[in-house]
Amino acid sequence: MEYKIEKAKPFLRWAGGKRWFLKELDKLVDINKYNTYHEPFIGGGSVFFHLKPRKAVISDSNPELINVYNQLKYNVEETVSTLKNYEKSEEFYYKIRSQVFSSKIEEAAKFIFLNQLSFNGIYRVNSRGEYNVPYGRRNSFNFDFDNLFEVNKLLENTEIIKQDFEDTLQKVKEDDFIFLDPPYTVTHNQNGFIHYNQKLFSLEDQYRLSDYIKQIKVRGAFYILTNAAHQVVKEIFSNGDRMYEVDRASIIGGKNAKRGKYSELILTNL
C-alpha cells in the first residue's frame, strides 16, 4: 500500500537547499520501494519533506538544528506557543539573537524565528559559536504554524540524531535509501577551492564521504549524492555509478554574488 503522511513541508530557509532538485528526484526514486530513509545532512530537509518516508533516520552535526527537529517532534505545542509570543521587528530580532536560553524549547523557537527573519536565511556563527546573521527586513512574513503541526506528524516515525555522517552507517541496512547533500567544499564550475567552507566540510571530508558511499553499497543499500560539479569532486567520487550534471539557477544573493546558472553533480547507484 502506498504510504502518505499529510502535507508537511519545509519550515526552514536553508542555503544550498534542494528544492530545485525535486523534479529530478521524482524521476529516480519511489520511496515505497525502500525500507528506511536516511539523510545524514538534513539541513532544511527539502527532500525528506518531499518524499515523506514512512520510516526515517535524519541527522546532522549541527546541535542547534537537531534540537529544532527534536522539539517539533516531542514539544511542538510549546514551541509554537513560544513562537507566537515573538514580535516581528528588527529590535526584537536582535534582542532574541543576543539571548541564550536554558530551555531547549525556547532555543528551538529562537532558531526558527531567526531563520525566518534573517538575511537570506543564512546559518552562520562567529568564532565563539554565536549566530551573527543580520536582520532581513521580513516584517510582512507570516509564520505557518499549522505546518509545524504537520511536521510533527511526519516526525513521529523518524529517528533524529546529532552525529557525524560516518556514524550513521551503523543504522544502514539492506534495501535502505540514503540521500546525501553535504556542504559543498568547492565552487560550482570554477577553478579552485573556496576557503570559507573548509572548516564546515573539507576536502578530507569529501574523501571520507566517498568511502562512506562504498560502505553503503557493501550493505546492499541505495543512495543519491548531490555535490558541486567540479573536476576535483568528480575525481573523488568516480566509482562506476551513474554520474551526471544538472543546471540550476543560483538563489543565494549577497553584495558580491553573481546570479546565474550552475551545474550540480548527481551520483547514484539506483
Layout of strands and helices, then pairs:
Blueprint: H1 22-28, E1 37-39, H2 46-51, E2 56-60, H3 63-74, H4 76-84, H5 90-97, H6 104-117, H7 145-154, E3 158-162, E4 177-180, H8 203-218, E5 222-228, H9 231-236, E6 242-249, E7 261-268
Parallel strand pairs: 1-2, 1-4, 2-3, 4-5
Antiparallel strand pairs: 5-7, 6-7
Helix pairs in contact: 3-6, 4-6
* Overall geometric form: globular
Span between termini = 22 Å
Structural class of the helix and strand makeup? alpha/beta
Give the strand content: 5-15%
Total of helices:
9
Average pLDDT number: 86
Low-confidence stretches: 188-198, 250-259
Order of H and E elements: HEHEHHHHHEEHEHEE
Spatial strand order of the main sheet: 3-2-1-4-5-7-6
Helix content: 25-40%
Radius of gyration: 19 Å
Largest sheet: 7 strands, mixed
Give me the count of strands: 7
Characterization of the model:
This protein has nine helices and seven strands. The chain has helices at 22-28, 46-51, 63-74, 76-84, 90-97, 104-117, 145-154, 203-218, 231-236, and strands spanning 37-39, 56-60, 158-162, 177-180, 222-228, 242-249, 261-268. A seven-stranded mixed beta sheet has the order 3-2-1-4-5-7-6, with helices on both faces. It is globular.
Summary keywords:
single chain, seven-stranded mixed β-sheet, transferase, 270 residues, alpha/beta
